[in-house]
Amino acid sequence: MLDPELISLENQVFRCYLGWSAILVLKIFALSIYTGLTRFITATFANPEDLMSPKLKVKFDDPNVERVRRAHRNDLENILPFFAIGLLYVLTNPAAFLAINLFRAVGIARIVHTIVYAVVVVPQPSRALAFFVALGATVYMALQVVLSAF
Amino acid sequence: MLDPELISLENQVFRCYLGWSAILVLKIFALSIYTGLTRFITATFANPEDLMSPKLKVKFDDPNVERVRRAHRNDLENILPFFAIGLLYVLTNPAAFLAINLFRAVGIARIVHTIVYAVVVVPQPSRALAFFVALGATVYMALQVVLSAF
Amino acid sequence: MLDPELISLENQVFRCYLGWSAILVLKIFALSIYTGLTRFITATFANPEDLMSPKLKVKFDDPNVERVRRAHRNDLENILPFFAIGLLYVLTNPAAFLAINLFRAVGIARIVHTIVYAVVVVPQPSRALAFFVALGATVYMALQVVLSAF
Predict the structure, then answer these.
(1) Among A136, B126, B138, C34, which has the highest number of CB atoms less than 10 A from its own CB?
(2) pTM exceeding the 0.90 threshold for the entire prediction
(3) Which among C10, C23, C47 is the nearest to B2, CB-wise?
């Protein structure tokens, strides 16, 4: 039924999951760095020990910093569950064509989500579309995993 | 010592982990959707581009939206580490009866946690109990994994 | 190319990943408990049903609680992606010496990060250093995974 070779670089479905997962980890970290840059540019620091000058005060309401933080949190809510469910989905031995395109859909949609949310603000429904493409693909994987488990 | 067949759908412990993980991913996403619904019902939007009418302004302090967001963040803090440690715990080849009931405990406790926190507010200690049942089971798994590693 | 025995307790690289992951899960949960303790000590509760006395009101701006919450969120942003990428990095069959020291670097740096952020506030750049050591090691792993995938 299940083949140990499923989690092997020789399985192209697993290799695709592996590649997109690593790209999305780098994308999440890019938002970390971007938050830090935005904090410096707007001089918005959340901790007294981070203040670069005695004239500064801690600040929590800069709209640019808060926007990047919302995009970052949205990543945690959506990409981190994908890491878990994508791996389990590979273990259900899905059809390669479908699985590979689902992984691509999640990866590309989440990159687009970050760009239209935090880098260049694009009017809705662009962000909503990117959000629901990734969510839909991940929900589909989760449902397949539930079916294979019970 | 360790059998590659541990991460196989033929291993009932792994299948139980797989099923509950997928259910909990769907549960986390249900809170995403529920946050969105609560935002629409209370007309609480965090981004200017999300405002449905020019009369609305961005708002960050609606108590209903904030409650759902706290429940959601609590999921990230507790369920996401479970995804990692549950898989590693399966690899320590635990006794099936114990492992299966630990996975059920985490799954059911976290569903109860969401219900009493974000859907129907139930007085304490209901939320605290649900929180500590899931936390206790996950900590137990983490300790077993530490013991098997060193 | 890839050996199924890579994810086995007999592989010292995997065992090291397993042990540090479990320690970091316990570390994240320690911050959960610490948040709760700080809430009690400062009587800062976010939900009406949590108030211990009718004289208390919900409060969201206690600087001690908010500091622990920022440290906790930083863990979610950095440690949870490590759980995913560390496992995939093991599957690329890295040199044992390098991989084991990368895992140790992440584990120790994140523990130091928590201590200097939330327990005993130490002036910068201590927190920044701990942050970038863990980030650098995780980014290196992610890049190796990307290279092995495509």
Answers:
(1) B138
(2) yes
(3) C10
